[in-house]
Amino acid sequence: MALKNDRFLRALHREPVDCTPVWIMRQAGRYLPEYRATRQRAGDFLTLCKTPELACEVTLQPLERFELDAAILFSDILTIPDAMGLGLTLEEGVGPRFSNPVRSAADIARIGIPDPESDLRYVMDAVRTIKSALRDRVPLIGFAGSPWTLATYAIEGGSSSDYKLAKKMLYDAPADAHALLDKFARAVTLYLKAQVAAGADAVMVFDSWGGALSAAAYDEFSLRYMQLIVDGLKAAGVSVPIILFTKGGGLWLEKIAATGCQGVGLDWHTDIGAARARIGNRVCLQGNMDPAILRASPTAVEREAAAILSSFGQGSGHIFNLGHGVTPDIEPDNVKALVDAVHRCSRQYHAST
Among the options 18, 30, 122, 136, which is catalytic? Predict the structure, then answer.
């Protein structure tokens, strides 16, 4: 059955659309009172992620409030290292912690590649449940963390501000780092392939911490493994669009676009018009409003959205998004103002379609 709203997918293929599609990273989250109520019922974040019916409920919540052009699977990037036996816990106000971090060749040797339909069955069941509940209303985005980003958590044992242990491994024991990253790349490829088989219409790789690397290290330890994922998905016959997003990756847009992905995510440090001039003839661009602007007035939100749309200019190939996730302190009415403004203000740039 055809999607009722396929703007998001059409834009990914740089096909004509009536207006610029919009979705928001972390659109199902703590800024929504209904999400907080569901999370309270679940008891904790991991239970919410691991209960397909509840994951479906919170995935659909923002679509009931806002005219979004895509849904994104409610899950977490740390599902794969959790399934590898690293002992994930999430503490309120502290963040993720792993009780079994990976810091040696022996640690790397002991972890295996999770089977998506057994070790991560709850994610696949969530994708199937969400896809059914959407009733082809909008596309569903599946996702995973990039190998480098997953490795930072696995090596550091949780969140980090400087990635000192992860970077130490890159430079002191590069063979170990490559062995770990290769395992994560194989795991992510299988995971995303399974999400597509379960119903995802597009997939996105979040390279949240790629921007912390030097240019040479980014090529060797981050982009190289995202390339393996893109190649692996295509070799497996996966034909849905792939979006790569490196936060802080504005210096490397040409290299990211050269992977063969269909979409490149932008954070707010890069002017989208300049990015279009650099790579917009090869890929769709996704982004890239500073999430902090949602703390301003609806008038300011609309003004900033209009400026980004103007910078991109005429034609398709733009999916409007924030440059990173929406934060818990944002008023839902400001998100509505953004979504409505994008649809309203962008029609002039698609007048010939």
Answer: 30
Catalytic residue among 10, 14, 39, 103: 39
Catalytic residue among 6, 35, 69, 76: 76
Q: Whole-number mean pLDDT of the chain?
A: 96
**Contact residues for 66 (Cβ-Cβ < 8 A; gap 6+):** 27, 335, 336, 339
Kindly state the average pLDDT of the residues 300-305. Answer: 97
Q: Specify burial of residue 283 (Cβ count, 10 A radius: 0-12, 13-18, 19+).
A: buried
Q: 91-121 pLDDT, tens per residue?
A: 777 789 999 999 999 999 999 999 999 999 9
35 is catalytic: no
Is 172 assigned a catalytic role? no
Q: How far apart are CA 13 and CA 169, in angstroms?
A: 39
Please check the confidence at residue 349 and state whether its pLDDT lies above 70. Answer: yes
Amino acid at position 45, single letter = F
Q: Please identify which of the residues 31, 35, 153, 349 carries the catalytic annotation.
A: 153
**What pLDDT score was predicted for residue 90?**
84
Which is nearest to 212 in space by CA: 204, 221, 203? 221
Identify whether 36 is a catalytic site residue: no
- What phi and psi values does residue 237 have, to the nearest 5 degrees? 85, 10
Is 76 assigned a catalytic role?
Answer: yes
C-alpha pair distances (Å), 150 with each of 98, 183, 189: 12, 11, 13
Is 39 catalytic? The answer is yes
Please give the full DSSP string across 38-93, using - where no structure is assigned: HHHHHSSHHHHHH-HHHHHHHHHHHHHHS--S-EE----TTHHHHHTT--EEEETT
Query: What is the average per-residue pLDDT within 232-241?
Result: 98
The single-letter DSSP state of residue 264 is E
Residue 352: band (very low, low, confident or very high) from pLDDT cuts 50, 70, 90:
low
**Where do the domains of the chain lie?**
7-350
Q: What integer pLDDT is reported at residue 353 of this predicted model?
A: 46
Report how far residue 117's alpha carbon sits from residue 120's, in angstroms, rounded to the nearest whole number. Answer: 6
- Choosing from 26, 31, 69, 119, which is the catalytic residue? 26
Give per-residue pLDDT as tens, 57-77. 999 999 999 999 999 999 999
Please identify, in words, the CATH class of the domain defined by 7-350.
Answer: alpha beta
